[in-house]
Each structure stands twice: as structure tokens, then as C-alpha cells.
Amino acid sequence: MSPEAFIAMARMEGFADPVEVCREPEGFLNLHEHPFEAKALILDGEIEIGDAHECQHYRAGDMFHLQKNQPHWERYGPSGVRYLSARKD
């Protein structure tokens, strides 16, 4: 999916305009949650997102979706990750 198509889809689904997020190579965020729903499109690099039961690996062109207050951890690839993140309360 192109960034333009992602932005259009996010707007149609009631998300705010996305912001670009960049995370450092080999970084890690411990278990946490966000007070908003998030949908993201990976632009470059890779990210692994997991919880107590499973984890998913995402690369450029993939999308991920996190529900509001969904506990998860994040691990970034050897070149970090860059993604567009759209949020909704």
C-alpha cells in the first residue's frame, strides 16, 4: 500500500492524519499500552510487536493495528524502523 492510500484509508476510518515515527536500530520497548487506537504502515526497516501470547513481524509495506490500551512490546530491526502512525481515541 502506498503512503497516500494509507492516509486516505485512515481518514475514511476516522483516524487523525498520520505522523512519521522513526525508531533506533535494535531498539526495544518493554510491555506497554497506548491510550489510543493505532494503525501504522511500515515505510522502511522492520518491527516485531508481541504480547504474552504471540508476536508478529512487519516489514516495509506491511500494516499493523493496535487497539486502545492493548498491552504489547516492540522490537526494532537492525536498521531500525520508520512508519506512518495514525491514531484514534
Quickly give the structural class.
mainly beta
Described by the principal axes of the CA atoms, the overall outline is: globular
Total strand count, please? 6
Gyration radius from CA atoms, angstroms: 12 Å
How many H/I helices?
1
Please, what is the average pLDDT? 97
- Name of the CATH architecture: Sandwich
Count of discrete domains: 1
Low-confidence stretches: none
Describe it.
By secondary structure, this protein is mainly β. The protein has one domain: Jelly Rolls. It is 11% helix and 56% strand. It contains 1 helix and 6 strands. The chain has one helix at 3-12; strands spanning 19-23, 28-32, 37-50, 55-59, 63-66, 72-88. Strands 1, 2, 3, 4, 5 and 6 form a 6-stranded antiparallel β-sheet that branches. A hairpin with a 4-residue loop joins strand 3 (37-50) and strand 4 (55-59). It is globular and about 30 Å long. The mean pLDDT is 97.
Brief synopsis:
This protein has one helix at 3-12, and strands at 19-23, 28-32, 37-50, 55-59, 63-66, 72-88. By secondary structure, the protein is mainly β. Strands 1, 2, 3, 4, 5 and 6 form a 6-stranded antiparallel beta sheet that branches.
Please outline the helices and strands:
Blueprint: H1 3-12, E1 19-23, E2 28-32, E3 37-50, E4 55-59, E5 63-66, E6 72-88
Antiparallel strand pairs: 1-6, 2-6, 3-4, 3-5, 3-6
Name the descriptors:
single chain; 89 residues; mainly beta; Jelly Rolls
